[in-house]
Specification:
- By secondary structure, this protein is mainly alpha-helical.
- 82% of the residues lie in helices and 0% in strands.
- It contains eleven helices and no strands.
- The protein starts with a helix and ends with a helix.
- The site of aspartic acid has 16 residues, from helix 9 and helix 10.
Amino acid sequence: ILQIVNIVILISPIGVFCLIFNIFATLGIEIIADLIEYFLILTFILIFHASFTYSIILSFSKLNPYIFFTKMREPMLFAFSTSSSSATMPITLKTVEEKLGVGKSVSSFCVPLGTTINMDGTAIMQGLATMFIASTVGVDLTLIQYMQIVLLAIVTSIGTAAVPSAGTVTLALILGSLGLPLDAIGLILAVDRILDMMRTAVNVCGDAAVSCIVAKSENELDEQIFNK
Ligand code: ASP
């Protein structure tokens, strides 16, 4: 099995190149402009979601978002550089307990559970990527299909493994159930590396934010440590 994995890893750059080349040859080089647009929109939504949505839910629990984000710098940077929520989990746990003051009983439940199933960044990417692929291959989506995308993206992101590019693999499930061509994923692959780094940082940030909120509601948050 290890030998097979090594061979796959060895030839995967060539495979990705061929996939992308095929897409560009079929759809034309102009598709680059759309790809840049997809990249910029997704970046904007991820930043907006991390800074706005989490700030709001933290504020509802009377927790200062500025303090939260300052202390989350290390796990977010680690998630950004590894593209894996699982690899970041020890650092997330340490930060949540030691810097944000979450009690062990809450953190040891929320952080591993969040790492496995809470992937907002991945769900956002899958929703946007499906719409992007549908528009590039000229499929007009109906309102029902949009709702289907929302539901499928949430469910699929829950089932996505917390490892690099797993979200792009499970994206195939959404495309398949909407009848969109699976090889269009090749288009996304061109920019997926950097987007994966960003969405993993968002995923990790969500796990920590929810841990703090749950700890606060359970009186398991040491606010002195949080505000220090
Ligand atoms: N890399 C992501 C994570 O570990 C999952 C994905 O969206 O590919 O959270």
